[in-house]
Amino acid sequence: MVRMQPILFILPLIAYLSGSIPFGWLTVKRLSSEDIRKTGSGNIGATNVLRTSGRLPAAITLAADVLKGVFPVWYAVWTSSSSLNWSPLLITLTALAAFCGHLFPVYTGFKGGGKGVATAAGCYLVISPLACLFALSAFVLLVYLTRRVSPGSLAAALVLPIGVWITTGAGLILAGASVTSLLIILRHRSNIMRLYDGREPIIGQ
């Protein structure tokens, strides 16, 4: 157990570095030579890519952002053993690191990161698929009712910790999900203001 504890630092670091890969920027740059950070909302997430560059780049970005949450967390779960007291800690730290890498990517000077919904979905798809399904259901329902992405994202963020608690009952995992939820909501501050003012764009506009 003592011999393996450095992984508590190494794997989250790797997760952060992989989470920082700006797939939205790379995809748009490759397909159109534009800098996604200088268009729309200026962030590298799939929603801004969709609004400014179209469906194909957005689909590629979305898939890549989900997978950069899936792979490091899957490895953390695979590496961990239920007999080790620190396994929930390793999983939580890895998930948070991948998520924060997307929000604050080192490769772009910690600026222009996305809002984290897709990468968080990738992380918790591994940790608790059922909780992720609860959050996805809330997302789809709110997007359908409002025809806007941000209410769906906010609803999913609020539902995620509840789903994690119901399905895992693990305090550390719940703490990580709660921090993730809070950061997603904070990253949507401008969207919340536009929703309040009636200026948040409808899908397709």
Polypeptide structure, described:
The protein contains 10 helices and no strands. The chain is mainly alpha-helical and 205 residues long. It has one domain.
Shape: globular
Helix fraction by DSSP (H/I, runs of at least 4)? over 70%
Q: State the total count of DSSP E strands.
A: 0
Q: Let me know the average pLDDT.
A: 90
- Secondary structure category: mainly alpha
- Give the H and E element order: HHHHHHHHHH
Sheet with most strands: none
Distance between the termini: 54 Å
Percentage of β-strand residues = under 5%
Count helical runs. 10
Radius of gyration: 17 Å
Low-pLDDT ranges: none
Summary, kept brief:
The protein is mainly α and 205 residues long. 72% of the residues lie in helices and 0% in strands. The termini are far apart.
